[in-house]
Amino acid sequence: MASSDSSFDIVCKTDLEELRNAVQHAQKELATRFDFKGGKSSLELEKDTVTLISDDEFKLEQLRDILENKLIKRGIDPRMVKYSTPEAAAKLTMRQKAEFQSGLAPEQSKKIVKLLKDLKIKVQASIQGEQVRVTGKDKDDLQSCIQAIRSADFDFACEFTNYR
Description:
The chain is α+β, with helices and mostly antiparallel strands. It has four helices and nine strands.
């Protein structure tokens, strides 16, 4: 990369502090909600996975809504969450795991690179592990790439870092 080139990275990572804060806020709301009183509903955070436990599928759905609302308020894109299928758990409860994406999968990186090539802007996009680096001479071209990626309807979240 020459000194006149500018670049940025496209990544997908969850801020674990904000995730922990969102789960704590969801737990507080869960404790005060009347419709969850006397039930066995809970949220548990383990590293980058949240386990949702509730009495039935309907309450599990409400628990997901609470969690997603708190994630949005803390600035975490809900597209970063991948839910497992609900399964029966102990004491007649339902359990579901919510895993948070860290890093772009190869097929997601390829979608981003294809989108940037289709724009026909003078930038180079290269896949570097779990991120995509975009370089170009003109910062305006990089800005238009960022806008195009934000407006694209991907099923995953993208963040932009190391803008130089």
